[in-house]
Every structure is written in C-alpha cells, then in structure tokens.
Amino acid sequence: MSDKLLKIEDLVVQYITDDGIVEAVNGLNITVDRGKTLGLVGETGAGKTTTALSIMRLIPHPPGKIISGGIELDGMDLLALNEQRLEKIRGDVVSMIFQDPMTALNPVITVGDQIAEAIMIHQKVGQAQASQKAREMLEIVGIPGNRSNEYPHQFSGGMKQRVVIAIALSCNPKLLIADEPTTALDVTIQAQVLELMKSLKVKFQMGMVLITHDLGVVAEVCDDVAIMYAGRIVEQGTLEEVFTEVKHPYTEGLFNSIPNIDDRKEKLKPIRGLMSDPYNLPKGCSFCDRCDYAMPVCETEKPPKIYFSDTHFVECHLYRDQQDFKLKGGMK
Amino acid sequence: MSNKSEVIATENLIKTKKRSQSADVWRRLKKSPTAMIGLAIIVLFLFMALFAPLIADYDDEAIKMNVRERLQPPSTTHIFGTDEFGRDIFARIVWGTRISLFVGLISVSIALSIGGFLGAIAGYYGGRLDNAIMRVLDVLLAIPTILLAITIVAALGASVLNLMIAVGVSNIPGFARVVRAAVLSVKDEEFIEAARAIGANDFIIIVRHVLPNSMAPIIVFATLKVASSIMGISSLSFIGLGVQPPTPEWGSMLAGGRAYIRDYMYIVMFPGLAIVMAVLSLNLIGDGLRDALDPKLK
Amino acid sequence: MSEVILEVKNLKKYFDTPRGKLHAVDDINFSIEKGKTLGLVGESGCGKSTTGRVILRLLEATEGEVIYEGVNINHLDKEGMRRLRKEMQIIFQDPFSSLDPRMTVSEIIEEPIKLNKIIEDPKARFERVLELMDLVGLSRRLMNTYPHELDGGRRQRIGIARALSLDTKFIVCDEPVSALDVSIQAQILNLLKELQDKLGLTYIFITHDLSVVNHFSDDIAVMYLGKLIEKAPAEMLFTNPIHPYTKALLSAIPRPTLDKKVEKIILKGEITSPINPQNNCRFSDRCNHAEEICRSQEPALEEVAPGHFVACHLFKK
User: What is the predicted pLDDT for the residue at B298?
Assistant: First the structure.
C-alpha cells in the first residue's frame, strides 16, 4: 500500500447549464498522505466545494458532471465504483463535514440517534451497542454523553458542529473532508473546534482535506497547503514552504489582503478586480487580468507547472526562465 | 487610458438611458410566448365585449326567442348553432363576454384591493391588529363562499352590481390570507430595514418594497380566482340570484344547456369553451407576469 | 479635543422572549468624536448589532439616551427623525438581502435622494446617482443591472453609495465585509477608509473580527452579552488588553503566520444569551480566572488608564 491516501489526477468537473458551461474544476491534481492534513484554500467560486463533492461522488447531476480525470482513495478508483459501493464508502472510508452546522442535523431526531444511525449503517452492530458508541463519540468531541438524548435545537452552534464531527468520525474514516467547518462559528468557539480537530486527527490517524478561505486557520491545522484559483491549484507545498516562500502572485495577494492584527499601521493591498467569469475563462492564465506581474505570455498560454522542491510547485510563467524570481514582497 | 475608458463610459451612458421598471417588465413579458398568447386571447375577448353591437344584434339574435330555429347545429347562419329557445349561441357568447368577463374581473379586483389591503396591514404590522383582522376574516372564511355570496345577494337584491359585490366580498378572506402570508415572508428582509434607514415611511415601504416582492403568489391566486368567480356567478345565476334570464351569461348558458347535453352537445360546449379560454388566457398572463416581475428570471 | 458627534448614555434595549427578558444591550456608554471610527466588537449575541440599530432608532431604546450633535434623538418626532436620517446612515452586513431585488442599481441609489427630496429635478438627480457610482467605484454601465447579477463586493458598493447619497455624516457599518471574500474585503475596507478621509465621515464599525477593526478604528469597544466590558484607543487595546475576554478574543484569531508568538487562550463553555441575567460578571462562567466576587457581583466599567476602561474585578490585583 502506498502512503498516498487520496490522489486526484487531472480532474475536470463542469456544470452544464442553460447559460453555458461552468468549468468549476479544470485539471486539478492533489494528493493527501495518510494522517496528513491538506488545506485547500481559495475564494468563493474557486471550485473548492466542487472538489470536495467530487471526492464524495456527490456532485449534483445534472447539471454537474465529472468530465475526466481520476480520483483514487485508499487504492480504490472512486470514479469506477457503482452507487452501491459508493454508499458503503461514504461515511465509512471518507466522511464530510459541512459548513453550516445549523442545517446539517435533522431537527426531529436526537443527536445520539443520529450518531448511532451512521454507525449502524456501516458496522454490524445492534441498537444498544451503537447507542453506547454514540455516547462515547460525544464524549470524544467534548460533549457529556448523557446529552445524547437531546435534540439539535438544545445545542448551540459550536456544540452542533461537534455533533457533526462526531457523526463524521463515528466509523473511523481514513479521510475526512471538512468544508469550511468553522466559518459559521464565533471566534472563541472556532478556536475550541480547531483545537478539537487538531487533537482528533492525531487520535484517529486520519487524513484530512480542510477547505477554507482563511489562511489563519490553515496555519493552525494543516501540514500541506494547496491554493486554488478558478478550478486549478496554482500553488502547492508544505505549510512551511507556502508560508515562507510565497511564489504565486495570487497567494501573495491573499496574504496582503488579510488585515494584520499585529501591525495596525500596515496598509491593505487588495487584489484588484474580480475573479474571472467561470462561464468564460481566459485562454491563458486565469489570474492574469488581476495580476500585477502579468506579461504578454500570460494572456495567451497556460502557465507551466514549476517545481521548487518535491513538494512545492507553482503554476506561473514568472518562474519559467528564472527560477529565483522574487515577488515584490509583502510577506510578513 | 482611464480617461479614455471614462469617455467610453459616458458615451455608453448617452445610448443606455436609464430604463424604467415597467418597460423592463414589458420587455421580459414579451419574451414569454405563452403569456403573449394569453394576452392575445384576452384582447380578443375585450374587443368582443367592446364591439358586441357590431358583431351581433342584441335584441334580435341574443335574447329573442325563435322557436322555429331552436336546437340547430352549427351552420353558416349560426356558426355555433342555436340553443333550446332558438337564440344564436355565438351572439349570446359575444354579449355574455360583457357580463362574465367583467363581473369576474371586477369582483376579483374588489376582493384583491380590500383583501390585499387588509392582508398587507395585518402581515406588516402584526400583533393585535393582525389578530383582530385575521380572526374576523377567519369567521368569514368558515362560511362557504357560495353561501356567503347567496346571503349577500339575497340581502342586497339581485342585480349585476350586487353580484359583483357579493362574489368580491366572499373572496376577500382568501386574498387577505394569501397577501398576508406573502407579506410576512418579505417584511423581515434586510432591505425593508434598509428602506426604513433612509427615512421611508410605512406606506412607501409597503407599496414600493413589500408588495412588489410578494407579487408572485398573489398574481397566481388572482388569476385562478377570476375563473372561480365566473363559475360562482353562474351558480348564482342558476339559482336565480345572479344575472336574470334572458340576459346572456356564460355560466347560465352552461347551466341552461345542461339538459340537452346528450343530443346537442354544442349548446354547452361553446360557452364552456369560452370560459376555458378566458381562464386559460388569464392563467398564462398571470404566469408570464409573475416571471416578468422577477428580475432574477431573465 | 475635537467635537463629539455622538454620545450614548446608559443605553438599554430589552426584548421579551418566552424564556424571560433578554438584556440585549444593557446599560452601555460611549461617545465618538467627529471624523473618527469606533470599532464595536463582540461575538454573536453580544448586542453589537442591536446597539447600532438603537442608535439609528431602527429599534426603540428601552432606556437611556442617544445624543447626536447635541440632540437627544429618542425624543424626536417623525419629522425630526426624518431630517436626522439624512445624516445618519447604515451599511448592512449582507449585501444580498439588504438590496431590494426588484430594483435596478440606479433606482436603489436614487431612492433615498428622491424620498428625502434632496434633488427634485430628475435629470440632476440622475447625475448625482452617476457621481455616487463613480465615487464608490461602480462602473456606470451597471446602472440598469439588478443586484442579483452582481457579486458581493459590487453589491456592497451599492449599499455604500446609497448610504452616501444623502448629507451623510455618520454611518453605522454593521459587519460590512464579513460576507465577502478576503481579497474583496480588503477592497471594501480601503474604500471605506478613503471615503472617510475624503468626506470626513464618522463611523461605528460593528464586527466580530478584531483584525478588521484593528486596521480601521481609533477606539475599540468590546461587548459581551449586552455589556461593554472594555473600551480603549485601538493601539492600547491591542498592546495591552486587560479583560480576560478581550485577551482570549485576541488570541483566538487564527493568524496566517508560522511563528506563534501569541499563546492561545482556549475558553471553556459556550456563548449563552443574556436572559434574566444575574448580578454577576456575565463572563464569569467562561473565564479562566473567575473568583468568588465575579460570581456574586457585577463589575462596573472603570478607567484604569487614561482612556482605557475595563469592567473586571480582577485588574485591581
């Protein structure tokens, strides 16, 4: 068995609508090692959630369609599996946590039963055993086990997200996909949940794809970072590489847009313009019309993938001829 | 470079003047073929009503009994045939348009304006006012519509005007409910608060922001109600409380021809068809209008 | 000392709920000088948005005074309030729901001008709309589009243009950037800053995100469950936070950097709601340092250094 838990190769996903074709993901490559956490960073419309749903094979069809590429999870070719096999895998080998804990739970079933349900679907255990396990799961995520008979509305937002995490982890998945798991939470509660997720990923030894727009969250939880823009990974590397040697102008722009809490004098340098129309992506680099470093070639040619180490690569014309090109700066 | 783009922007400006909302709605409505068909049919009916005297002679063809020509099938002289009294069915339908369509439209307008007003203030202000209005209307709602209409006509006396009032009033609670529900769903939206923040008073907020955004269910309900009003009028006519014979009216034509349906189907078919066409066209317009009023659907 | 434009005195706003009286805003005091920005910070349910709405009288205060340029606005009649609304405006959090979906961009911006009869001539009014669009960086060709056709950043620009369309001097910004993407967020923050410098506006900047206000505010007030618990000039609050909650809030922000000089303070428990509050420190059940006195007595807001106010029993030690 290889040490690669998840391997996505040249994934292309499109949404075919009356207004045209949305190229949500076009040519995406990522890998997640066992027990490692990959931060998938990008803004609205970058294709993060589409990527996550592709791994779950939950792309709504129509209008969505996986056009080409491969997704390999734990040695299985996910795109070749039928719906029955997929149902066995979802929640068991791979689980997903959604952004909004308020709507992710069924309001008329107790939280204990909701966790037990997930367990009984995938493991041959009886009701009593599943309920017992559900209580244990609640304890693991920091909720007293005796609250398992309560209904979701009796829990606050942070607690609900803990319950959602308990459900996701109840069958010891090998891969957890967390789609903006803390975005809907308050800052102090977010800190609690992130702390919990950090300890759980060690405890359960699972790989994780953490989807977020917040580089701060990435810095806290992730081992590797992939920066996504307009359906492609524009820069990927270990946390250290991406945070200390920013290579892609978009990554630099993201860092410069974040207000720095430790230095209030610093001026915000937003990325100008807007993300390209997903119905009509530019021929060359998707970022070129917002890029301060854009060259004529950026408009006409797709940028090549350039490696700086085994793990760190960038898709950008700037480094084609001069590997040691330096961005203007702005790293903190 | 930025100067140049500004010049272009101003040039664009001269060409693309501000578009008005009603022009926008009309532009979107035109794009819907079904709505246009509905509109064409309704316009046809309206013309028929308006120019009825030019199409058929009222006294001679529409109400004068002519026993010799009774129950004739459609032919060149009577294109829709004649009824059991020998009256020309086509002429009666043409003249019936005046009553059926107008009573239908006007009674719905009465119900819409009064019920809409009550529903809007009940939904918007809520609390005790809401309770008071809605409980009274609930009592009305508990009485079957037709029974209520019968009571009103019986009290006021049978005439076309009273008929419209009766059917209109009996539809008020339904409209109030629909409008109230629609208003409730938009009144807590943030743009309502935003309007208040710029100093808009309640009247402006209701008229300019709440109602336009709650139009969809109201329009659909109203077009359906026109149909049921036409039927309601004919029911009243049938029991002698509505339009008095021999005045032509679609519903009563349908009711009168009922006895001959086995052998002379056309007697009921043509007025029935008229009702169906009127209702269908109103529905098509209603659907089209609902979509045209929503800028999110292009 | 410059001129105080707005003063809030003993402001209270209670709501009746089935479970009891919700003390959404409970006896808060602050003032803002002309041309400055006050950051009002706190987590959900702390009463920051309610405070903003009570100041604009979109909600009626239960008790207390809001004094704007020397006038107690709680006592103004409808006409007086209408006049005042030309100067006091609000920018909403959600650029999706705060714009009427059935109006075009130009109609939305025009509405306040028309309604308040600022410019009666339609042509001149339209010119003003275009001017405003230029001012907030909205391309003129968008005037006939509908909000749903635009992205969040542009929609928020419409909201800003609308707020500026009157004789605006004072704006409550209610989480104006929290619904936006980071790169767009920075654009809007810079725009607000520019407009403030250009037009001499005064802002109350309501947010849950301390890093945003740090950038923006002159003073910062931190709220927790309806109470003002700490207030200080921004610099001071960030370098020397005193209240345990402020400290935890500051440390909890995920920083996009690898060197972790700030130690995380993880609070226990959840945010509750201030329904029928006891006479205690409302933070005491989550506070890592809480003592007996914190659970039995409500701390008052006291000045611990010039301009730095804290409501905590423990700072004296």
Answer: 55
Higher-confidence position of B83 and C76: C76
Query: Could you tell me if residue C147 is inside a domain?
Result: no
Mind listing the pLDDT tens digit for each residue in A42-84? 888 888 888 988 888 888 877 888 888 889 888 888 888 888 8
Q: Work out the angle at residue C149's Cα, subtended by the Cα atoms of residues C85 and B18, and round it to the nearest 5 degrees.
A: 65
Domain membership of residue C61 (yes or no) is yes
Query: pLDDT tens across B216-250, in order?
Result: 889 888 888 887 888 788 778 777 777 777 788 88
Q: What count of CB pairs under 8 Å joins A to C? A: 127
Instruction: Give chain C's largest Cα–Cα span.
Output: 68
Beta-carbon contacts of C179 under 8 Å, excluding residues fewer than 6 positions away, are C93, C94, C95, C96, C152, C156
**Residue holding tokens 């007595």?**
C297
Torsion-angle region of C83 (φ positive above 0: left; ψ -120 to 50: alpha; else: beta)? alpha
The span from the CA of C41 to the CA of C205, in Å, is: 8
**pLDDT higher than threshold 60 for residue B255:** yes
Per-residue pLDDT tens digits for A70-123: 898 888 888 888 888 888 888 888 888 888 877 888 888 899 999 998 888 888
Q: Which residues in chain C are closer than 8 Å to A44, comparing Cβ atoms?
A: 152, 181
Question: For an interface test with B, which of C57, C98, C113 has the most B Cβ atoms less than 10 Å from its Cβ?
Answer: C98
Helix (H/G/I), strand (E/B), else coil: A252: helix
Give the pLDDT band (50/70/90) at residue A237: very high
Residue C67's CATH number: 3.40.50.300
Give me the number of domains chain C comprises.
Answer: 1
> With contact defined as beta carbons under 8 Å apart, do C168 and C201 qualify?
yes
Does B189 contact C97 at a Cβ distance shorter than 8 Å? yes
Question: Domain containing C66: what range?
Answer: 4-87+169-238
Q: Is residue C53 part of a domain?
A: yes
- In tens, the pLDDT along C96-134 reads 889 998 888 999 999 999 998 888 898 999 999 999 999
Q: Is A183 on the interface with C (CB under 8 A)?
A: no
In this structure, is residue C72 part of a structural domain?
Answer: yes
| Contact criterion met (CB < 8 Å) for C186 and A270 | yes
Distance CA B211, CA B186 (A): 9
Separation CA C317–CA C310 (nearest Å): 13
User: Looking at chain A, how many residues does it have?
Assistant: 332
pTM of the model: 0.83
Residue A2 pLDDT level (bands cut at 50, 70, 90): low
Question: Do A316 and A285 form a contact (C-beta atoms < 8 A)?
Answer: yes
Distance of CA C158 to the CA centre of its chain: 19
CA distances from B197 to B231, C172, C206 (A): 47, 11, 17
Any idea which residue has 């013309």 for tokens? B47
Whether omega for the bond prior to residue B212 falls within 30 degrees of 0, making it cis, is no
Partner C contacted by B197 (CB < 8 A): yes
B213/C101 touch (CB, cutoff 8 Å), yes or no: yes
Q: Which of C78, C85, C146 sits opposite B198 (nearest CB)?
A: C85
- Tokens 């008790």 map to which residue? C63
